[in-house]
Amino acid sequence: MDEILKQMRALVDKAKAEKRDFTEDELKEYNELDEKRKAAEVQEKRDAALAQAEADARETKAQLEKVEAERKEAEERAKRATERTERHAPASTMDKPEHTEQRTRIERVRRYGSLRNFTTGEDAEERAYRFGQWCLAANGNQRSANWCAENGLELRAHTEGVNASGGFAVPEEFDNDLIDLRERFGVFRRNARVVPMMSDTKTRRRRTGGLTAYFTGEADAGTESTKSWDVVNLTAKKLMVLATYTNELNEDAVLNIGDDLAGEIAYAFSSKEDDCGFNGDGTSTYGGIQGVLSMINGVSGGAAGLKSATSGSHTDWGAITLDDMVQLVATLPEYAESNDVKWYCSKPFFAEVMQGLAYAAGGNTTENIQGRVSKTFLGYPVEVSQKLPKADGTAEIVCFFGDLRLAADFGDRRQNAIAFSEDAMVGGVSVFETDEIAIRGTTRFDINVHDVGDSSDAGPIVALQTAS
After folding, report:
1. Residues 365, 378: one domain?
2. Hey, which residues does 381 pair with through a beta bridge?
């Protein structure tokens, strides 16, 4: 860079000294040097951005390692304290009813395996146990119904007391657990702007333009400007999951029943939510929802936020370069640069492209390669969704980048209901004949992807597309 500037100054100084303009050859040489200067400046900025991203990644990794070490140390301290307490506790204390119940719960977990879904909070086992008892009661188990009545769990029919029609409304405490599980499983719900819906429809005003400042002459009237708005509409769609379950539901396995059913239902709902949010094409398959991919591809004249990988005629992921990814980061508008900006891609894309580019950058050690890589790239978190492309494709959007909260609203009606039946037909087969139970879970939600930019300006979410 310094040598280029030195040569450019020499040409200018020579022309000034001779009091003349550039000759044709000098002007050509000066323009060539200026192009080299611009290219060098761009490269310096890219190198600086990459160095900063690598530094941020190292800092994030160090912080995560520190948090993990502190967590393990806290667990060890708690374990030692528990062992000391149990070792020195009087026999009469351990015989109290609450300790007896606790030992019984622990034995249930040891007998039927650890929890897979209720894994957060000190009372995870109890929440799973209560949900299992509620499910058994909803299925007609009288002992569980009595237990629910004694422990403050209400069996409230969703429609006039008929389980087969609408099922039982999930109590609020379990409704919150189902939402938590769905947020843990679902990428789209966790990152979009969640809008609670108190009714089946919701309208939210959205700012599209602001006030404008004008120069005004002395004693002249000012020029008026107005703030502009449009609306984002949400209409709750009913989503249903229907499955069969063994009829051998009993109190001995109530912990596992609650844990398994909550996880399966929450996973099914969140899986469909992700599919609608990313891939919805407006058809009945997606409840009429148009996802990010459909909205970006639907921009007339081509979305400004849709960038093609500079891999020529190649469509394989191995041809995607670090420059492609850096250029996509540069495409995101400044107003969308927030703490919620993330990458969105599938696990194969993260491994093959992002981790591949990171390792190819050099400076790796045996510890780097053998250690677990945090899900970050170029200094931004990576959200993995298996609803996004998992293999090479032609002219295919392979990843998104940006702030999903600014691009999409997630309408949450929060009307979960669960119904059980011993004589329903599922897939043309009677569950009575197969000695199973039909389980139906329903929820209501909507997604409105309202801002992906246009053909002139990129929006708060941008995308990378493979070559055509």
Report:
1. yes
2. 376
Tokens at residue 294, please? 């459909």
Calpha distance 280→289 (Å, rounded): 5
Proportion of the chain above pLDDT 70, given as a percent: 74
Residues 201 and 256 in one domain: yes
Over range 211-229, report the average pLDDT: 66
Query: Which residues, 6+ apart, have CB-to-CB distance to 54 below 8 Å?
Result: 361
Task: Name the strand (E) or helix (H) holding 149.
Answer: helix 142-150
pLDDT tens by residue, 341-397:
999 999 999 999 999 888 887 766 666 665 666 789 999 999 999 899 998 888 889
Q: What is the pTM of this model?
A: 0.64
Looking at 53, 85, 117, the residue that finishes a domain is 85
261, part of any domain: yes
Query: β-pairing, 193-196 with 408-412?
Result: parallel
Quick check: is 429 in a domain? Answer: no
DSSP label of 351: I
Q: Interior CA angle at 320 toward 34 and 186, to 5°?
A: 125
Most confident of 27-36, 149-158, 194-203, 275-284: 275-284
**Rounded Cα gap, residues 388 and 349, in angstroms:** 9
Q: Name which of 452, 423, 457 is nearest 438 in CA terms.
A: 423
**Same domain flag for 154 and 18:** no
Q: Are residues 206 and 236 in contact, defined by beta-carbon separation less than 8 angstroms?
A: no
Residue 427 placed within a domain: no
C-alpha to C-alpha distance for 271 and 264, rounded to whole angstroms: 10
Q: What is the pLDDT of residue 133?
A: 80
* Maximum mean pLDDT: which of 141-150, 157-166, 204-213, 248-257: 141-150
Q: Which residues, 6 or more positions from 64, have their beta carbon under 8 angstroms from its beta carbon?
A: 374
Say what the pLDDT of residue 69 is: 85
State whether 304 and 276 are in the same domain.
no
Tokens of 311: 């891999």
267 and 192 in one domain?
A: yes
When divided into structural domains, the chain yields a total of: 3
442 half-sphere exposure, CB direction, 13 A CA radius: 17
